[in-house]
């Protein structure tokens, strides 16, 4: 709940990252960048399909934390 780690988001496949949001009103960093700090341990990624079919892989990494990957099917 107290975490404020910087998260990096990487997208592969037929999708693109629109932005990252952590709901911290005092954070004035660029939300369209692929790096953002979490707020109270949470972050939200906005991803848009490019119109092609396939699998979009979304990877989140951060120093000192285990990385994770999510696969989304686009039809």
* Fraction in helix: under 10%
Q: Give the class from helix and strand content and strand pairing.
A: mainly beta
Q: Would you list the SSEs in sequence order as H and E? A: EEEEEE
pLDDT < 50 stretches:
none
The share of residues in extended strands comes to over 45%
- Shape estimate: globular
- Mean pLDDT across every amino acid position: 93
- Strand arrangement within the widest β-sheet reads 3-1-5-6
Q: What can be said about the biggest beta sheet?
A: 4 strands, antiparallel
Count the DSSP helices: 0
Q: What Rg do the Cα atoms give? A: 13 Å
Report on this structure.
By secondary structure, the protein is mainly beta. About 0% of the residues lie in helices and about 50% in strands. It contains no helices and six strands. The chain has strands spanning about 5-10, 15-20, 35, 45-50, 55-60, 70-75. Strands 3-1-5-6 form a four-stranded antiparallel beta sheet, with no helix packed on it. A two-stranded antiparallel sheet has the order 2-4. β5 (about 55-60) and β6 (about 70-75) form a beta hairpin. It starts with 5 loop residues before the first strand and ends with a strand. The mean pLDDT is about 95.
């Amino acid at each position: 709940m107290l975490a404020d780690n910087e998260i990096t988001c990487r997208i592969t496949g037929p999708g693109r990252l629109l932005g990252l949001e952590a709901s911290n009103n005092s954070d004035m960093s660029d939300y369209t960048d692929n790096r953002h700090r979490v707020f109270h341990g949470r972050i939200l990624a906005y991803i848009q399909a490019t119109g092609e079919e396939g699998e979009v892989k979304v990877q989140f990494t951060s120093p000192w934390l285990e990385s994770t990957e999510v696969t989304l099917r686009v039809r």
